[in-house]
Request: fold
Amino acid sequence: MNAKVIDGKAFAATVRARVAEHVAANAAHGQPGLAVVLVGDDPASDVYVRSKGRMTREVGMASVKHRLSAETSEADLLKLIDDLNNDDSIHGILVQLPLPGHLNEDLVINSIDPAKDVDGFHTSNVGLLGTGQKSMVPCTPLGCLLMLKDHHGSLSGLNAVVIGRSNIVGKPMAQMLLKESCTVTVAHSRTRNIAEVVKRAEIVVAAVGRPEMVTGDWIKPGATVIDVGINRINETVKGGGKTSLVGDCHYDSCAEVAGAITPVPGGVGPMTIACLLLNTLNAFCDQKGLPRPS
Ligand code: NDP
Reply:
């Protein structure tokens, strides 16, 4: 293996420590508060929400969880969001997705005050990011960007290929890289000769949801590979079943060629939660008229 392993777990711990320092240093202005709204009882969401709550408290912020039944009406959910929008002790609001099918996700997300939209999914924040203005930005691509900047310093002029064009990862990632003056290509399921497209990139961000789709022969020697994918696969081990997590990149073959790579798990995943805390701190600073931490 040639690639440097970018340790997202360790880097996320330094981001959380920086957030905790800022929270303590600004205690005279109040305590940042993050409200997480969970509708229904999806077990995976429940795990995420619990670890978000624990880490929020660990950095000195207030964590408030609102758990609603899967049958909650849209009107009741919108009323809760309105109450949180008007609650001065709450600076960030996160509605855990996906929502049950009878709830209109766009409507719900766009009912969050954009200043408290720590997921960066509100249309106003999407527009601000797209026009290069200060905004709340989605946590997962922010985590990828922080790791890339930490590794490369300036990203200016680098060729970046983002694989995936979802609203939560691919598109905002492309906008953030463009803002850093990368030359950005977005690849997706209709992209022709995708291996050739990816091979031109000095930065590859894979956000596809297909286990180990990107293999080493797609990678330009020395490129930086950021693997966003989280795929659970079932393996048969000695007659029994075992579930393991793999990324969208085939780790061993990509690591042979790449200059740097994020592992799965332990890469982008931990950075996502750290960036949620950073976004909550940024939202708090904005609402209090304080400068955001650099
Ligand atoms: P989506 O399913 O919303 O988007 C997947 C994208 O991949 C689409 O744009 C799709 O293209 C594209 N795609 C699908 N198949 C191919 C293919 N064969 N070749 C090229 N492109 C393809 O996924 P998300 O963006 O929400 O998530 C992507 C991955 O990242 C998932 O594994 C998810 O679990 C993970 N994830 C990890 C997070 C973390 O914290 N680490 C956070 C969020 C997501 P098209 O638009 O044409 O259909």
